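Consider the following assembly input.
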Amino acid sequence: MPTFSYNGPDGAIQAVEGEPWFWIAHYRDGACLPQFCAETRTFHRFDEIDLGRLTAFEVRNAFDEARAFRIRIAPGMRPIFFKRHMRLNVGTPQEQHVILFCFGYQETVGGRNVKCVLTIGKGGAVSIENHDGRA
Amino acid sequence: MAATVEICESNGAGQTVTHDIANSNMGDADAAALDPVAYPVTPGGNTYEKWQRFHVTAMGGSSAIDNLKVWRTGALGGAAVHVTNARESGYTQASYATPVATDSTAATQAMPASEPTAPNLGIAGSLSAQITAAGYSDYLVHQVQTDPGDTAGATTTMNYQYDETA
């Protein structure tokens, strides 16, 4: 994967390797903030997204632009994006390190936090759930 | 690069830390990656406790590591039980103590046999806390306690999970 530079809050610049799936925040004024910007070769963190300007949250495959998911973000909706690392059967011949890409949105409905989460697993299979395995 | 996370194990008085353990083999010795054939547990006895932690050695640009989960898979066999301090509610942080082969006072609850629905290992004493810079999770303490009627050969394997927000 290509390498991008991250200008951290402490001013230090560090190298960040690209990921097979990444997010793009689309703003109401037509601007966008990609997690990995191909033009500037910079990396942006999820907490850099300006939620107040967000109109759509896209997750795209780094190798195939056509493989993309775009979520319309209405007022009150908050995007979700994280990687889930699973080290399974540690120390056995069946040991695996599985990485799942999880994304979607959450919003408060009737006082409850409601989530819609898509998970991209090994091989690209996608599942959709109303929870993300988090408290 | 993404965050670099390893599982570490502490052994001995004052703890000797083994980083990035190859396995979580348990037996009649307080040692990381031990050979269970060389250190078998007599039926009715316990393994030495395992004291393990998630260790973030580099954040790699990511902002948070959280939602730590541990569970076991496989058939324990006989009446053996795999106990732990990991739990989804009523969680308290364990302070390191030299691993023992007597009944653990830190690990008093059954190790989940499938993925927990919520985090069951904390960070700084809280199940909802995050690791935001290189550092450690709380200690995961676990032990297998056998019954005199148990036979050799049953296995249980460990699974470790965390979420990374970039």
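The interface with chain A takes residues 1-2, 5, 7, 21-25, 33, 60-63, 66-67, 69, 73, 115, 117-119, 127-128, 157-166 of chain B (CB under 8 Å). Ask yourself how this observation constrains the way the partners meet.
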